[in-house]
Amino acid sequence: MKNRGRDIAVTIVFVFFLFAFFGINLLKSPEEISVSERRKLAMMPEFSGENVKSTKFMTDFEKYALDQFPFREDFRRLKAKVLFDVFQQKDNHEIYIAENQASAYKDKFNEVSVQDAAKKFNKLQKQFLLNMNVYYSVIPDKNYFLAEKNGYPHYNYAEFEKLLTSNVNENLTYISLFDCLRPEDYYSTDTHWRQEKLKNVVNRLGENMRFHKRFEEQNYERSETHDFYGVFYGQSALPMEADVLVYLTNDAIKTAKVSILDEETFEMKPAEVYAKEKLEGQDSYDVFLSGATALITIENEQAETEKELYIFRDSYGSSLTPLLISEYKKITMIDLRYIATPALKQLVEWKDGQDALIILCTDVINSSSILKVF
Amino acid sequence: MLFSSITFIYYFLPVVILLYFIVPFRFKNLVLFCASIFFYFWGEPVYTLIMIFTALSGYLHGLLIDQFRGTKASKVWVVSSIVVSLAVLGLFKYSDFFVETWNGLFKTDVALLKLALPIGISFYTFQTLSYTIDLYRGTTKVQKNFLNFATYVVLFPQLIAGPIVRYVDVEKELTERKHNFENFAYGVNRFVLGMAKKVLLANQFGELCEIFKATDEKTIVFYWVYALAYALHIYFDFSGYSDMAIGLGRIFGFHFPENFNYPYISKSITEFWRRWHITLSSWFRDYVYIPLGGNRVSKLKWFRNILIVWALTGMWHGAGWNFIAWGLFFAVLLILEKAFLGDLLKKIPAVFSWFYTMILVFISWILFDAESIQMALSRIVAMFGGAGIAFNNSVTSYYFISYAFLLEIGCIGATPLCKILVNKLKEKEWANRVVNVLEPIVQVVLLLVVTAYLVDGSFNPFLYFRF
Prior knowledge:
- The structure holds two protein chains of two kinds.
- By secondary structure, chain A is of the alpha/beta class.
- Chain A is built from 13 helices and 14 strands.
- In chain A, the strands form four sheets. An eight-stranded mixed β-sheet of chain A has the order 6-5-14-12-13-11-9-10.
- Chain A is elongated, with a radius of gyration of 25 Å.
- Chain A starts with a helix and ends in a 9-residue tail after the last helix.
- The mean pLDDT of chain A is about 90.
- Chain B has helices at about 5-20, 30-45, 50-65, 70-105, 120-135, 145-155, 155-160, 165-170, 180-215, 220-250, 270-275, 280-290, 300-315, 320-345, 350-370, 375-385, 395-415, 415-425, 430-455.
- Chain B is globular.
- Chains A and B meet through helix 1, helix 3 and helix 4 of A and helix 1, helix 9, helix 17 and helix 19 of B.
């Protein structure tokens, strides 16, 4: 009986473990959202004969049990720790850390989608921008800077760029931004670029689009907020330090009149360039022009020009556009992921002779079916 | 319900353990029966009736076989039990396969039934058959208590993934079994070990296989990495599930047979099949191979028997020609080994015979994992450089490096090295004491890490569900 003590210990430990978590599971109030993953958590499913027969109840309960498990965030961090430090794996859910930056790797680009994006750019030009100065740019994802030199899967960005530009009409001017950015110009825990690091990007755009002032002449004031945890932090449960989120202001930005399309009433409602209440929300990056929005207009009261800009953009455009305000009388921002082109005919006043910029990140161009260009 | 799920570990199991251990012995089978029905119902509400029908059929046939013992009617009833069981299995598992084959051969357009496969049907059908056949042979006694018999058939620890527990294996324990700390602790150890094998190793190797299948950047090296990863995936998946089943059985006082014995150290295919899915091989040996005459017939009939058994083994694993080809692949190898290769393998250095075995096993798994024979052949050709693809590239290197340590753990874990080391250590008094202290700590650490992986993951399917 020399191992009886061990057997008792193993039994007690196992039973305690099982019943402790069972008890906590029963007593714990369910949480509605996961802040780190920026998603709603599964709730206890409805119990009904139909749900049971179709096994929907069981499937949903499994999701509920996973989502509402006690100390879920700690367990997710433990998994990431074991994966990186014990099993020596190089990524968690395809997200990795290199040069103190988290990034999601991609080993191929979607040729069909890139060609489709080019067709959509051409269509936009024909439908709305015929007599305008039309420019387009691609925002590289972080993988472009990090993957190759750190040994992570990546695709050929030069081929990506070549495929896009060779399929876009010559009437549209391509402004390459690939050499304007470095990995540290992006948030370390997020996919997006840092507004305060866009000097080279703005100046490159300005050189092509004939801006009057360079970035460094705009007299920006910095405001910052700490503890910004980006999308990569939550999705991968990686052990990373929070980012500092900086937003820049000058007189033109302060006095700009912003209107946002209310997608329920289809009327424009007033807003701010920096929606500071969003800093406390699920995604602090939404501080820039209120985050995902179909249509925004920004009017510059102090403008010394009558020029207007139409910008077809994604979330990267939210932090870039404030830096372009002082160059235009009015900027119209359109996110084609949330609004279809037929609606733009009524909602947007198109004026000849103005500037237009299509600026999208590689990820959106790789999934161009989400762009509602008809 | 999967063993390796939060619902099973932290909802189902605590409730069942609590109920089981607080009721008097005479109600314990009732608790297990109800728990098992609930366990099955959770995943297959409608098909629960089929499982109960199979149990009822086995029970009634058992009574009839026993009642007419010594008469021709007894034989009729055992044949009837085989026909009923195999008809149910055939209807749900093989009907569409036969229809598709028929349509293909005769250019007809017979409609498919498209019936979903009831989970674990291959396991509980074979278990029920073992009872009626053994009863007819007189190697076991009739079970007159339906609850006891049904508990055997539906017992959740071995219900969906084996091992194939024959009635004689647990006959006595259905009515008399011991519950003590020794059994419980042993069960916990096996269960946690099995869970770690499944969640921490098998799932990760499965993920690597999926990455391989999804990428367009395949290379010769990646084909070999995939072959290794799949071999480890299927081993840790299945043996992990068997460990969990054996462990859970022991917690409730049952001694289930072992199903794996380090198959990847085998030095011949014959040895491999003595170490892999032992309960299935022995089932086919005792209920098909030996009744056909085994090896006590002419050489030609002997080889015919091997071909029949292995075609059936392939079919048991899946309703597809690639599974039958997989079974026949082993049949041919076993015939060759019995004819002359076996003697040769014993004479050559062990490393060569091991290498021979592993290469063939790898090839067999590629056949097993492919959706068609053509796909398997193209993968095998590519492995040996016949597809005109690059030898290596950066994508292959990345995944190989990322999974290298796990693959190393898998390769070492597939051998008895750790077991031998721990047993050696235990021979020393001081080391034994250290192991005794460490064991509960290791349990907790493994449980925490497994839970972390489960919580972080989402869908976590078990490979052997389709059987």
